[in-house]
Amino acid sequence: MNKNHVEAMADVRDMYMAHTVFRREFSLLPQLVRDVAPGDAKRAEIVGAHADMLCDTLHLHHEGEDLLLWPRLIERGGEEAAAIVPTMEVQHHAIEEAHAAVVALLPDWRRTGRGGDQLADALEHLRAALIEHMAMEEAEILPLAERYVTAAEWNELGEHGMGKTPKKQLPLAFGLVMYEGDPEVIKAVLAHAPLPARLLMPIIGPRLFAAHAKRVHGTATPPRIGAGAR
C-alpha cells in the first residue's frame, strides 16, 4: 500500500468525541427512564424520542465500522489487526443484541409510559456492553487506524453516518458532539462541510442542543463525561 506513504493518514480524534457523546447520553438514559412516572406518556415520548435518536445514531456508527473499517484493518494490519478485530466484531454483535432489546421496548413505553423498569434495565445492559467496547476500541483499534487507514478513508465513516441521518437532525447531532467536543477537532471536522454549514453549525448546533437538553434532561448543561471517563 505504497500510496499511504504520501497520503495523509486518519485523524481519529473525532472518534473520541463521538464516544464521549455515547458515554454521556447512554449513561444518563437509564435514570431518565426510571424517573418517568408510570403512565406519564407525554414525558415518556420526550425521553423515548431522545433514546430512539441515540439508538439510531449508534447503529449507524457501528454499521460504518463494520463496512468500512474492519475490512481495511484486517487487510492491512497484519497480526495486530487479526488479534483484535474479531473481538470488535463479537462485541458489535453483543451490542446489536442489546440495542435490539431496547428498540423492541421503546415504542410501547413511548406510547403508554408503562414498562419503564424493563426498558431501563435493557438500557443498562446496552450501556455496559458499549462502555467496554469503546474502551477497547480506543486502546487497540484507533492506533491501528492511524497507521493503516488514510484520512480520505476515515472521512468515509463520518459520511456514512451523516448520509443516513435525517437532514433535519444533523444540526442537533452536531450540537450533541460540540457540548464536550474539542474546538480544534470540531473545526477540522467542519472543514469538510459546505461553507454554509461551516459558518452556521457552530452557532445553531449548541443552541439546538441546549434546548433539547433542557427538554430531555431538565437542564441545558447535563453532567459532562469528559475525557476522564475513558
Q: What are the segments in which pLDDT stays under 50 over at least 5 consecutive residues? A: none
Compressed to H and E, one letter per element, the order equals HHHHHHHH
Alpha-carbon distance between the two ends: 32 Å
The SS-based structural class is: mainly alpha
The total count of strands amounts to: 0
Helix content: over 70%
Helical run tally: 8
Mean pLDDT: 94
Largest sheet: none
Strand content: under 5%
Rg, Cα atoms, Å: 18 Å
Number of domains: 1
Shape assignment = globular
Pfam family, one: Hemerythrin
Protein name: Hemerythrin domain-containing protein
InterPro entries: Hemerythrin-like (IPR012312)
Account of the protein in words:
The chain has 230 residues and is mainly alpha-helical. It has one domain. The protein contains eight helices and no strands. The longest helix is centred in the N-terminal third of the chain and has 36 residues.
